[in-house]
Predict the structure.
Amino acid sequence: MIRIYEQDAYVFEFEATVTSADGDWISLNATAFYPGGGGQVNDLGKICGLDVKDVKVRGDDIIHHVPGHRMKTGDTIWCSVDWERRYDMMIGHTAEHLLFGALQRIVPEINIVKIFISPENKYVIVDRDVQWDDIGKAQEFVNTAINDNLSVTKSTMGRDDPEMDGIRAKMERIDDEFITVVEIGDADIAACGGLHVRETGEIGAVLVDRKVSAGKDGYAIHFRTGNDASLRSMDLANKCMQIVEALGTKAEDVVKAVQNIKHISIVKTEQLRSAISKIIGGLRPEIVGNVSVYSGIFETDDKTVIADAAEKIKTEGNVSVLLAKGESLSVIVSSGTKNIDCSLILRDAVSKFGGKGGGKPDFAQGGVSDASVSADLSDDLIRRVKNALNQEN
């Protein structure tokens, strides 16, 4: 099979002959449909006017999923790759090379874990967190390379070639004897079998607009290209200026201003948590039988403080009914006695008020969206707890 995309990624219409047909899957003597690889998803398009839903590698062949086709071996057919989709991914893949290469220049110890390039999402997962200052420097490097309109060239090297030592490559993932190497001017060089543009000017622009945790893999750095990057840049800049105006600061001071607000918020949260903790510690329990029942409603969105108190009350062999009242209600029931089922009591009570909850017999928690029912819900829970304890006695 001739793989046209390896010879010229800009070919998107071609004539081919069907070499086999197996249900909805067909093979051709030549194809421009890229089956995916190097983090780039596969092409889509049409064959004989029918939608190509998937493209895969099978052994030495490439197969095309064309549901409902009536093609047979020997048919000469006309094929068309969805060019706009393909070109968007060629741009994205080339941009990813530049972006990671720039990040590695700034943070030499960084390693690439995964690449994903599709029309909907473009990101690279790296094995450590990267500061936004460093991302900004990398982004500047990339956009300078784009403005310089560097040539993007492709060559083939043997895996044992000494020059491979200076080329970014995941050799453990490559089985081929000969490796495709993509060089972008003097900005980057890496092993890659994906599809790329011929010149960096075709990328238009690159913007990193999101960085999120990828769990054990590290961090996903999401980026946009071309007009999408420009529009997103303007949108974010406008939002930033709204923040600047709301804070009454200068644009160049907005990060520091937000950091100060965050610090103040943390301090006040800790102060509020400490105050509530002291209030809970000073609660006078109601004695039911020989068990102390602690209850209270506390004005806070932070349920951590009441959860800690409920756990302490439980370990002392007593019972708690504690509610955190913010925009909604968080409810916790705990018990150090064996014959009271906190999960059952809480679940039955909150369901009356449109809430949900659950847990274990000795510790349960739940929530209700309507915070105005706090007093009624607390009374209902306390009543249920008392009934359970009285039955125990």
In short: The chain has a mean pLDDT of 93.
